[in-house]
Amino acid sequence: MARVCVLGGSGFIGRHLVEKLVERGDFVVVPSRRRERAKHLITLPTVDVVQANVNDPATLARLFTGCDAVVNLVGVLQGLRGNPYGPDFAQAHVELPNKVIAACMATRVPRLLHMSALKAAPDGPSEYLRSKGDGEGAVVAARGELAATIFRPSVVFGPEDNFLNLFARLQRRLPVIFLACPEAKFQPVYVDDVARAFVASLDADEAIGRAYDLVGPTVYSLRELVECAGRLSGHPRAIVGLGPRLSYLQAWAMEFAPGKPMSRDNYYSLQIDSVSEAGLPFGLQPTPLEAVAPVFLKGVYPRSRYSVFRYYAGRKVREI
């Protein structure tokens, strides 16, 4: 039984990864700022949810002591402007990875798995992608002393996502969707496939020192994904695509909306397509969006829930 510490383990991707590690027979430590927010993990066998501040180096060292692997999934989609990245981006994507690397080295953790983002680069078009690129660069720089693997997913979809589900909710409430950057391209990857790739890398020596893009089998425009979310949720709406100027103005206006559903930094990220020609690593087969989206966008109902089983049984999945 391996001991694995998962930072960000109570989040959307983290909960799926933790479940996969438990199925594998590992003991999993999940730090959380508020333990009650990880109630869905507390009941899992071999999971220890610990209330902890992962931004404190001494706390990280205590958490990592005795671990066989550390997984860093921490990330934010919105940040505050004013600094080179904004404090949220800098803390989550640059400062924390450096602290994680230092703590891994100090406690002699043999493996580090790091979550970056597709198209992350120090010269990327947005603060999000630039900060992710710098955090990834810190992991690359430590490869000589630390057995690390980097993963770069496109947008991740699944039952608890805040992407397809967000557009489905909007179409339940609004008669028309005014859509910024409608032709932006994505290659959505299923959350379970992301979790499987992380777990598979722990037993793959060839993964050490490598970086992997994680994408699904199909490229979609943002308009196509929004149409899909509306159709499968049973509330298709007219979609009005906005040009560059109106897209920017919408993003700026949404920074003041409750929950900040979009920002100018998101707009800048959409200027580069989140796609890749790489397939999933370790021989994994990507799950089509068509196989699972009908289940969680409209609920588990008698006919749609079998689409997942049909796909894994090798049968044809109905087009969306």
Quick description:
With 320 residues, the chain is α/β, with parallel strands linked by helices. The chain has 2 domains: 3-153, NAD(P)-binding Rossmann-like Domain (Rossmann fold); 159-188 and 217-274 and 288-320. The protein has helices spanning 12-24, 39-42, 57-64, 87-107, 127-141, 164-173, 191-201, 222-233, 244-254, 264-269, 289-298, 306-312, and strands at 3-7, 27-32, 47-51, 69-72, 111-115, 147-153, 156-157, 176-179, 185-186, 189-190, 211-214, 220-221, 238-241.
Walkthrough of the structure:
This protein is an alpha/beta fold and about 325 residues long. It folds into 2 domains: about 5-155, 3-Layer(aba) Sandwich (Rossmann fold); about 160-190 and about 215-275 and about 290-320. It is about 40% helix and about 15% strand. It is built from 12 helices and 13 strands. A 7-stranded parallel sheet has the order 3-2-1-4-5-6-11, with helices on both faces. Strands 7-10 form a two-stranded parallel ribbon. Helix 1 (about 10-25) links the parallel strand 1 (about 5) and strand 2. Helix 3 (about 55-65) crosses helix 4 (about 85-105). The chain is globular. About 45% of the residues are buried. Mean pLDDT is about 90; it is low at about 80-85, about 300-305 and about 315-320.
